[in-house]
Design brief:
The protein is mainly α and 215 residues long. The chain is built from five helices and four strands, in the order αααββαβαβ.
Length: 215
Amino acid sequence: MSILQSGGALEQFAGIQQELSRAESQAEALRERHRTAERLESEKTGLDIERNQLLLRLREDYDEQDGVVRKAIVSFQEVSADLYEEAGSLTLNPTRNGPELQVSIHGSQSHGISNMQVFCFDMMLMRMISDRHGGPGFLVHDSHLFDGVDSRQVATAFAVGAREAEARGFQYVVTMNSDVLPDEFRDAFELGEHVLPVRLTDATVDGGLFGMRFG
């Protein structure tokens, strides 16, 4: 070291050692990144294999449940045909990301028709679970579902809901302010026969629910 220092090379030697330390640190960091990349690639390959296996099992399940799937598709079409001249469509496809479900009714870009897609889908589900003697036994729709929906379709939806509930033995409940109820109903549907006797009103002090006032 004395010789190196006398020749002015000690500082250079120390600098080289620092460079070596930095190079070794960078090399170790690169090795760690490479190990991480290999591990991620291995995990990705394993996940791809697992997802492909799940897709295969899903397709086999779809084949086994083909009758149920077809029944759901037909039920959706029948309910939507009651609301619109052109029946809607329901498609179920197995994908690597799981079941892919698409519903469509002509003009579905409209907010109101999009809501009616939900109505038709819910009624289809109630048909399916009622026929299999399962489910909660009731379906509840809030008035928001009918926002932007033509009053004729709302009236028809009420009639369809009442018909489905009676035919399949479940209770269909709609919560809606009386001032936005449809005025006309087809097929001699009497709304008054389905209105519950309990009414919420702010006209009197006892018109709340569980002590809550609605105003």
